[in-house]
């Protein structure tokens, strides 16, 4: 779709607050906020509540800015895909220029304010995260390689490192482990979605693994990454951010996740289509719960540590 056409559509209907808020990808932003908050609270350095609140707010704004710039660049393919066709730009409620201006303004605002509220290490990580998501993933990897989700997943894995840096002013093994957990979780999470999105990615010309290598290969990749993820996730239970609570949660969730990945791997397309990709959708839903419970367990260990109940 041409820019002129998008401008024309956007002028036909005034955008409301909900449209501008949707530009910020609030569901993605909620994950950014949660994992950044866990990183901040799990750090061994106490942060004043007002500084913590302001920092999480600016991290959220930075995440939203990334979403707006992603929608600005991807408006053409969003128009083609069923899942994204009703986003504000392809639906004609917000113009690309507006989305770009909002994204750039909020990016600069978020980085500067986080530097002032916390420190320049956290702000630098936020700036790099925005750059990585918008330039490296959205503009380059997404339309170029089937490894787009694998490499691009780093963008979504940085928030706990940013939260940790807010508290400590630096990077540590613990924050890198939290990064790694999200980084390894991202491919099976999105590939499961790609399995039941049918032809969306092919129609949009996005080289998702299901398009370039087929669904059989995608199922095998989901299993391999899930097994690698399980080893990392359970292993984290024996580190400084882990403990008995985390280990219990991780063992149970990874057993379920591996079971789900094996079930998906063993399926053929005929069976999957016959039941409407029920198992694939179930695995995708489980992946959301998986990440929430792992980071919730990290938070629980940190909350109980002062009472001698969390950690080892």
TrEMBL record:
InterPro entries: Protohaem_IX_farnesylTrfase, UbiA_prenyltransferase, UbiA_prenylTrfase_CS, UbiA_sf. Its EC number is 2.5.1.141. CDD domains: PT_UbiA_Cox10. One of its GO terms (cellular component) is plasma membrane. PROSITE patterns: UBIA (PS00943). The keyword Cytoplasm does not apply. It holds the Pfam family UbiA. It catalyses: heme b + (2E,6E)-farnesyl diphosphate + H2O = Fe(II)-heme o + diphosphate. Its main location: membrane. Pathway: Porphyrin-containing compound metabolism; heme O biosynthesis; heme O from protoheme: step 1/1. GO terms for molecular function: protoheme IX farnesyltransferase activity. Signal peptide: none annotated. One of its GO terms (biological process) is heme O biosynthetic process. It is a multi-pass membrane protein. Converts heme B (protoheme IX) to heme O by substitution of the vinyl group on carbon 2 of heme B porphyrin ring with a hydroxyethyl farnesyl side group. Interacts with CtaA. Belongs to the UbiA prenyltransferase family. Protoheme IX farnesyltransferase subfamily. PANTHER family: 4-HYDROXYBENZOATE SOLANESYLTRANSFERASE, PROTOHEME IX FARNESYLTRANSFERASE, MITOCHONDRIAL. This is Protoheme IX farnesyltransferase. The gene is ctaB.
């Amino acid at each position: 779709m041409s820019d002129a056409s998008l401008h024309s559509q956007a002028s036909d209907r005034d955008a409301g607050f909900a449209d501008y808020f949707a530009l910020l990808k609030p569901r993605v932003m909620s994950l950014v906020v949660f994992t950044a908050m866990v990183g901040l609270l799990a750090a061994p350095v106490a942060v004043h509540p007002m500084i913590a609140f302001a920092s999480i707010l600016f991290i959220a704004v930075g995440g939203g800015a990334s979403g707006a710039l992603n929608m600005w660049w991807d408006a053409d393919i969003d128009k083609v895909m069923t899942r994204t066709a009703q986003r504000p730009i392809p639906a004609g409620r917000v113009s690309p220029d507006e989305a770009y201006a909002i994204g750039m303004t909020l990016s600069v605002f978020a980085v500067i304010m986080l530097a002032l509220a916390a420190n320049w290490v956290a702000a630098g990580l936020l700036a790099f995260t925005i750059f990585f998501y918008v330039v490296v993933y959205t503009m380059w990897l997404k339309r170029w390689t089937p490894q787009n989700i694998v490499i691009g997943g780093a963008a979504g894995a940085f928030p706990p490192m940013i939260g940790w840096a807010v508290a400590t002013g630096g990077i540590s093994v613990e924050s890198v482990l939290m990064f790694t957990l999200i980084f390894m979780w991202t491919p099976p999470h999105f590939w499961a979605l790609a399995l039941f999105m049918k032809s969306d990615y092919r129609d949009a010309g996005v080289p998702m693994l299901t398009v370039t290598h087929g669904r059989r290969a995608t199922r095998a990749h989901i299993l391999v990454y899930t097994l690698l993820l399980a080893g990392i996730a359970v292993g984290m239970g024996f580190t400084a951010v882990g403990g008995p609570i985390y280990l219990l949660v991780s063992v149970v969730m990874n057993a379920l996740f591996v079971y789900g990945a094996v079930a998906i791997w063993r399926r053929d397309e005929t069976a999957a289509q016959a039941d409407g990709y029920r198992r694939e959708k179930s695995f995708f839903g489980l992946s959301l719960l998986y990440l929430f419970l792992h980071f919730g367990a990290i938070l629980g260990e940190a909350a109980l540590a002062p009472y001698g109940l969390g950690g080892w």
